[in-house]
């Protein structure tokens, strides 16, 4: 339950005003009063990058930062004040206080996965538009709750699946969608594997008192209690299944999202998923699979294989059809036959949305109230093979899935893992 | 040291067995449990997780064995009652969350109100299906307090426990705001008739923030009725919540529900909100109207447009564009010519979806007269216009326009792949305006067909700048390659007709890019041309070949020429063709490379040969590499080649 102690301010003070920026986000200076006001919740690793991205957008004005790590919070505030050359950025510990502000139009959420559902639904309920990091949530049920809340409260939502705003990914998907390689039979999705020790703190996995600048109990939030250690939090939380979903869920919102985009699966999903994983079991804290292979089958006959940590499987997405293949990654695009890359996608064919940039697209949609290029219902569909893959790995069972009703068929143990029980008092 | 050794062992043992699709699970037996649980009984968080991981795997392997699962559950229940560590019991709760049944309720239920174990007991118990677990939670409600109590309420809601509504209903009236809100949320999740009635009763008595929250849950509950087909009930609830006295977010939620449940019947309520002074609710109403199909909705939206301030007009135009209803094209055209730049911009973006032939010139002019994001938007809209009349309209506009507008239209034909514009583009290439000329040449790459080949040949042979020659040759090559059969005849005829060196060089470039067999006799003759420049052009064209057909020609030239620079060029070309994918044996490739090595006089060419040797690992290439070790200028590369070939040969 979200304790919104200052919610009454909204009722008392009148309605929030949104003064729109230029519909297209004019280059050059935009007066502060013409910008979308943004608060950044989660200013650590990815959050810090996102703060900078919003600071670089002339149509946005970052007015507040929020983090339960005092060091991250100060870094965020410093970055904002440095950009605007003033001391106006407000810093908050609790996101509820941010959401209570009527003058904030939108929030950027870069909190650990296990917090996504709670903060996102609270933000939608508070009338904020949301730029939310991927994957949509730590588990399927909370991801679904986000989709429902965004729809119910009429929020504009952008998922941090920024590959949809990059031209090579879009072009690759257009080639596939428009039959340039014939009927697609298989898709290979290559993801990183392993449990990367980003900051070299992986060895620090014995319990110890949390640092004073970190509100650890709040950091845990809805997750079951476990004692603090550096390996459990910041960046490497994603290797513990209470908070994240390993490399599979870390990347599903990128390459599986692209795979689905190319298949035209934004409103559908697999009918069967099975996965296998391998664990290192060295860490006292990291329990996500370090290698995995998930096979998702679709009613169209397409088979998608998602592999992580395996030699010989290139990163990226490769669609293979009767007449050739297309491969795309952040490093480039390739196709067989090569002439496919010279294709022109005509107006009467499927032309996917061109984005001016992922953050720019979000801000434009905040103003125009259009659907973004990466809305939450699509993010849920993209993440579903990952959620089901993890469930398959953890139950060692094949998951039969109804993509219309969005439910697991005849697998009670697997069904238990679609959602989780939150530590009190938290609930969506 | 020990820790490291353990890590090695663990890593090795963990790598066995799991790397496959879901394979048949190993046969597990109950007697595996006790040794593991003995270790887990003393587990603390600063210890290795190995026994826990092993037990988890044991449970996973047992999920299809009901008899064994029953034993596991019973054993874990006993474990919870033992003097195992808190951390060990924490783990047991987690495992039970996957497999627990009513059989675990006698052990778990008392723990629901134990402050030290309540959270994890609920973690395990909440996943047990069926009414007995509901009753266990319910029976603990009265005994629980604070967050523990709220947690139980949350779990009853998550379980959609209809039998718990009588217990939850009075809690929605609690003076404790947190309890009231939790209970309201739980009732909304259960969403049966008694829940709805309980929420209605609660909202009648609640005030302030709690009332707002209950109202939202009331609307949420109604949404579940609508989802089940009971729209009448849902609409009745929504209409209670859309009044102007209701808080903004409650109205927005109710309007959304109304729009989904009633469709066009919701138009009056939505229009009323569009005409309200509340920008956020107005924006929501505009968006909701946009999502209801039907011409009457389009008409209602168009009717509201002139009443709105500019920033609301932006939103309405965006919503109309998303509908894709082309009957609103004229509204967008008018808006695109209006005074407000934001509205103009929104209209230009929207024309890409609802525009028709009458939008062509406006969009081209907008693109021509703007920069940055506005220009991109106008271009995108021009490129996306749909319908059979668009391309002809663009062609017609090209013919009647000039300057930047003409350039934009020409660019559009290339982006659109408008083959109908091909002749117009060939004509445009002849224009004096350098931008028109350049963009027409570029656009032809995507647009030209066999009929334009003669025109493109003329453009190529008459090109006066390197950039033009490059664009023209690339375009011509693409078109020739696309044509079936390849239209190389015009290129060859032009070669015979044009004696100017530059023209011939350009045409040979096309021959190389198209790799047509018919061009080979021409290129072979060119290899014997008295002019070095022409011979050079022939070498480059053969080097560009898509397969190894001209390889022998290049080798013969390299052997026979006295011109050192041409010899090097031919040798490099030869090596490039050797390296193309082929069906040759490694020994055959070695023979080809040996020929090259005898001709290579400079270190650069020798290194090129040595670099290729590793692609064909065999005794013959090894011999070549070993012989090169004695050459001081390439010793390092030769040794590297030897090593590579040796390592690859080992695996063959």
Keywords:
heterodimer; A: 428 residues; alpha/beta; nine-stranded mixed sheet; 12 helices; 15 strands; 32% helix; B: 652 residues; mainly alpha; disordered N terminus
The coarse silhouette of chain B is flat
Oligomerization category of the chains in this entry: heterodimer
Radius of gyration of chain A: 21 Å
Task: State the order of secondary-structure elements of chain A, H for helix, E for strand.
Answer: HEHEHEHEHEHEHEHHEEEEEEHHEEH
Reading side by side through the largest sheet of chain A, how are the strands ordered? 13-12-11-7-10-9-8-14-15
Given helix and strand content, the structural type of chain A is alpha/beta
Task: Provide mean pLDDT of chain A, rounded.
Answer: 92
Number of helices of chain A: 12
SSE-based structural type of chain B = mainly alpha
- Distance N terminus to C terminus of chain A? 7 Å
The description of the largest β-sheet of chain B is: none
Mean pLDDT of chain B, rounded to whole units?
Answer: 93
First-to-last CA distance of chain B: 40 Å
What's the tally of helices of chain B?
39
Give the fraction of residues assigned to helices of chain A.
25-40%
Strand content of chain A: 15-25%
Number of strands of chain B: 0
Largest inter-chain interface? Answer: A-B, 81 and 101 residues
Folded structure, characterized:
The complex is a heterodimer of chains A (428) and B (652). Chain A is built from twelve helices and 15 strands. Chain A is α/β, with parallel strands linked by helices. A nine-stranded mixed β-sheet of chain A has the order 13-12-11-7-10-9-8-14-15. The longest helix of chain A has 20 residues. Chain B contains 39 helices and no strands. Chain B is flat and about 105 Å long. The N terminus of chain B is likely disordered. At the A-B interface, helix 1, helix 6, strand 8, strand 9 and helix 10 of A face helix 1, helix 3, helix 5, helix 7 and helix 9 of B.
């Amino acid at each position: 339950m979200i304790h919104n102690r200052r919610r009454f301010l909204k009722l008392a003070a009148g309605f929030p005003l949104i003064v729109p920026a230029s519909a297209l986000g004019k280059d050059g200076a935009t007066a502060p009063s013409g910008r979308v006001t943004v608060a950044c919740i989660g200013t650590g690793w990815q959050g810090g990058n996102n703060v900078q991205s919003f600071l670089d957008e002339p149509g946005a004005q970052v007015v507040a930062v929020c983090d339960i790590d005092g060091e991250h919070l100060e870094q965020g505030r410093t970055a904002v004040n440095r950009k605007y050359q003033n001391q106006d950025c407000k810093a908050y510990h609790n996101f509820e206080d941010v959401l209570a502000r009527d003058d904030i139009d939108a929030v950027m959420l870069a909190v650990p996965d296990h917090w996504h559902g709670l903060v996102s639904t609270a933000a939608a309920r508070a009338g904020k538009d949301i730029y939310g990091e991927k994957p949509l949530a730590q588990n399927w049920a909370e991801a679904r709750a986000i989709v429902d809340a965004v729809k119910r409260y009429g929020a504009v939502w952008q998922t941090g699946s920024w590959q949809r705003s990059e031209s090579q990914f879009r072009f690759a998907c257009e080639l596939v969608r428009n039959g340039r390689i014939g009927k697609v039979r298989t898709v290979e999705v290559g993801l990183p594997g392993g449990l990367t020790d980003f900051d070299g703190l992986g060895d620090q996995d014995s319990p110890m008192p949390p640092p004073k600048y970190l509100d650890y109990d709040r950091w845990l939030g809805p997750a079951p209690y476990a004692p603090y250690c550096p390996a459990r939090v910041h960046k490497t939380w994603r290797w513990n299944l209470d908070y994240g979903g390993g490399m599979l869920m870390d990347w599903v919102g990128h390459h599986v999202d692209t795979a689905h985009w190319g298949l035209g699966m934004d409103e559908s999903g697999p009918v069967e998923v099975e996965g296998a994983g391998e664990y290192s079991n060295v860490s006292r804290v990291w329990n996500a699979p370090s290698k995995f292979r998930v096979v998702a089958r679709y009613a169209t006959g397409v088979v998608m294989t998602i592999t992580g940590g395996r030699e010989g499987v290139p990163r990226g997405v490769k669609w293979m059809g009767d007449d050739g293949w297309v491969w795309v990654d952040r490093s480039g695009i390739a196709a067989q036959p090569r002439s496919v890359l010279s294709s022109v996608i005509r107006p009467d064919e499927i032309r996917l949305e061109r984005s001016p940039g992922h953050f720019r697209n979000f801000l434009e949609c905040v103003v125009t109230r259009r659907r973004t290029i990466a809305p939450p219902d699509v993010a849920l569909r993209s993440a579903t093979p990952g959620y089901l893959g993890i469930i398959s790995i953890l139950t060692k069972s094949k998951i039969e899935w109804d993509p219309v009703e969005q439910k697991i068929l005849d697998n009670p143990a697997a069904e238990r893992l679609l959602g989780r029980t939150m530590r009190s008092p938290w609930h969506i | 040291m020990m820790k490291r050794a353990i890590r090695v062992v663990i890593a090795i043992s963990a790598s066995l067995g799991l790397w496959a699709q879901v394979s048949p699970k190993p046969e597990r037996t109950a007697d595996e449990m006790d040794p593991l649980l003995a270790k887990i009984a003393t587990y603390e968080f600063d210890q290795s997780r190995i026994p826990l991981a092993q037990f988890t795997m044991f449970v996973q392997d047992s999920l299809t064995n009901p008899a064994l699962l029953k034993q596991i559950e019973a054993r874990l229940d006993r474990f919870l009652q033992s003097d195992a560590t808190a951390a060990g019991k924490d783990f047991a709760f987690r495992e039970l969350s996957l497999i627990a049944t009513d059989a675990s309720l006698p052990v778990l239920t008392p723990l629901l109100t134990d402050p030290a174990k309540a959270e994890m007991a609920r973690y395990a118990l909440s996943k047990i299906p069926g009414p007995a677990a509901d009753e266990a939670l319910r029976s603990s409600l009265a005994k629980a307090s604070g967050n523990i109590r709220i947690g139980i309420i949350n779990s009853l809601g998550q379980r959609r426990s209809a039998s718990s509504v009588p217990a939850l209903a009075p809690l929605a009236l609690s003076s404790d705001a947190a309890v009231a809100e939790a209970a309201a949320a739980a009732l909304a999740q259960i969403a049966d008739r008694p829940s709805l009635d309980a929420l209605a009763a609660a909202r009648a008595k609640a005030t302030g923030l709690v009332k707002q929250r209950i109202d939202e849950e009331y609307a949420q509950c109604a949404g579940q009725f609508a989802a089940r087909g009971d729209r009448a009930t849902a609409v009745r609830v929504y209409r209670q919540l859309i009044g102007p006295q209701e808080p903004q977010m409650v109205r927005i939620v109710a309007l959304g529900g109304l729009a989904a449940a009633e469709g066009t019947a919701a138009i009056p309520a939505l229009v009323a909100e569009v005409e309200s002074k509340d920008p956020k609710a107005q924006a929501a109403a505009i968006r909701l109207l946009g999502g209801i199909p039907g011409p009457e909705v389009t008409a209602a939206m168009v009717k509201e447009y002139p009443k709105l301030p500019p920033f609301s007009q932006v939103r309405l135009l965006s919503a109309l564009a998303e509908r894709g209803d082309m009957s609103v094209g004229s509204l967008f055209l008018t808006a695109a010519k209006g005074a407000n730049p934001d509205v103009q911009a929104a209209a230009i973006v929207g024309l890409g979806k609802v525009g028709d032939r009458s939008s062509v010139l406006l969009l081209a002019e907008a693109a021509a007269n703007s920069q940055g994001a506005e220009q991109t938007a106008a271009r995108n809209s021009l490129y996306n216009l749909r319908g059979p009349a668009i391309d002809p309209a663009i062609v017609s506009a090209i013919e009647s326009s000039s300057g930047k507008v003409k350039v934009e239209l020409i660019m559009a034909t290339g982006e659109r792949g408008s083959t109908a514009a091909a002749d117009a583009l060939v004509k445009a290439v002849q224009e004096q305006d350098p931008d028109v000329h350049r963009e027409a040449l570029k656009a032809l790459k995507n647009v030209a067909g066999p009929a334009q080949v003669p025109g493109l040949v003329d453009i190529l042979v008459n090109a006066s700048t390197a950039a033009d020659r490059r664009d023209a040759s690339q375009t011509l090559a693409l078109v020739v390659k696309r044509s079936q059969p390849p239209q190389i005849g015009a290129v060859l005829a032009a070669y015979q007709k044009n004696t100017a060196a530059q023209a011939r060089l350009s045409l040979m470039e096309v021959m190389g890019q198209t790799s047509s067999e018919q061009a080979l006799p021409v290129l072979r003759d060119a290899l014997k041309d008295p002019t070095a420049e022409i011979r050079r052009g022939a070498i480059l064209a053969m080097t560009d070949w898509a397969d190894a057909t001209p390889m022998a020609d290049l080798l013969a030239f390299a052997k026979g020429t006295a011109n050192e620079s041409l010899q090097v060029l031919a040798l490099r070309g030869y090596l490039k063709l050797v390296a193309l994918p082929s069906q040759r044996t490694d020994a055959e490739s070695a023979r080809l490379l040996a020929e090259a090595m005898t001709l290579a006089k400079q270190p650069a060419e020798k290194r090129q040969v040595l670099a290729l040797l590793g692609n064909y690992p065999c005794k013959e290439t090894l011999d070549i590499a070993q012989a090169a070790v004695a050459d001081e200028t390439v010793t390092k590369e030769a040794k590297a080649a030897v090593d590579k070939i040796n390592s690859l040969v080992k695996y063959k």
